[in-house]
């Protein structure tokens, strides 16, 4: 399999694949100055990497907007998931293609996780949550039961979200925020209790 994007985030995914015992042939990155990452070769184009139709991919780019652009650019390739063996994922939940689940993550019963999502180290997704495509749930985030997170939103490191909350699309929840009421699309929310400080540009 191959990864697209050779960054710090990519290094973590390399180690998830190693922990799963999978073979990573290399990475692709647009920056021609990057030629290796950890022990892996970095290529600049799909042609250079000699990609064949059966190769599986993960987009290893932390930016939600760029991950979405690259996913559209790569439409037609086969995406896979990377789930760390130390994650606890309910057999009654679903995890979309291209999604990475890092060490010590918990995903509880009847939660649904979209495509190209990042569930970062030690986050907790409780029962009946819906996490849409291109979301990033940062390390140590806690989503209570029945929380919805819209496309492209990032929940910042250490934030907590109370039960039954709806968070819109392309929202940024700041580090350590405590979300006690619904959040509209594109809002940037910080603090405890979370308050809107500005709005993101629509994609
Ligand atoms: C493995 C990994 O590394 S995963 C990555 C994890 N990283 C994160 O989760 C980062 C989360 N990002 C943040 O919290 C950012 O501060 C953001 C996105 C909320 C805001 O960033 P910016 O848009 O650059 O805002 P800026 O830094 O100018 O701050 C604006 C105001 O909000 C305040 N503010 C910013 N972040 C926070 C926060 N997390 N909590 C409380 N207040 C905050 C600032 O103090 C500032 O207040 P002031 O106007 O009174 O001075």
From TrEMBL:
On the tree of life, the source organism's domain of life is Bacteria
Q: Which InterPro entries match?
A: AcTrfase_PglD-like, Hexapep, Hexapep_transf_CS, PglD_N, Trans_hexapeptide_repeat, Trimer_LpxA-like_sf
Quote any Pfam family the record assigns. Answer: Hexapep
Which keywords does the record carry?
Answer: Acyltransferase, Repeat, Transferase
What positions does the domain PglD N-terminal occupy? 2-74
Task: Spell out the PROSITE patterns in the cross-references.
Answer: HEXAPEP_TRANSFERASES
Q: Where is the signal peptide?
A: none
Presence of the UniProt keyword Ribonucleoprotein in the record: no
Q: What family is this?
A: Belongs to the transferase hexapeptide repeat family.
Protein name (Swiss-Prot/TrEMBL): Acetyltransferase
């Amino acid at each position: 399999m191959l990864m697209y994007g050779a960054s710090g985030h990519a290094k973590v995914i390399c180690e998830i694949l190693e922990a799963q015992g999978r073979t990573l042939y290399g990475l692709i990155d647009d920056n021609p100055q990057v030629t290796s990452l950890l022990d892996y070769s970095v290529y600049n184009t799909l042609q250079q990497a000699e990609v064949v139709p059966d190769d599986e991919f993960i987009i290893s780019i932390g930016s939600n907007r760029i991950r979405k652009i690259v996913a559209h650019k790569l439409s037609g390739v086969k995406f896979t998931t990377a789930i760390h063996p130390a994650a606890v994922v309910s057999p009654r939940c679903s995890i979309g293609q291209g999604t990475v689940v890092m060490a010590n993550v918990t995903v509880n019963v009847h939660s649904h996780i979209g495509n190209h999502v990042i569930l970062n180290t030690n986050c907790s997704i409780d029962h009946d949550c819906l996490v849409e495509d291109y979301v990033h749930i940062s390390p140590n985030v806690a989503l209570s039961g029945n929380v919805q997170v819209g496309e492209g939103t990032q929940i910042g490191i250490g934030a907590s979200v109370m039960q039954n909350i709806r968070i819109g699309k392309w929202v940024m929840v700041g580090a350590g925020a405590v979300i006690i009421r619904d959040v509209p699309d594109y809002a940037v929310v910080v603090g405890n209790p979370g308050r809107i400080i500005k709005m993101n540009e629509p994609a």
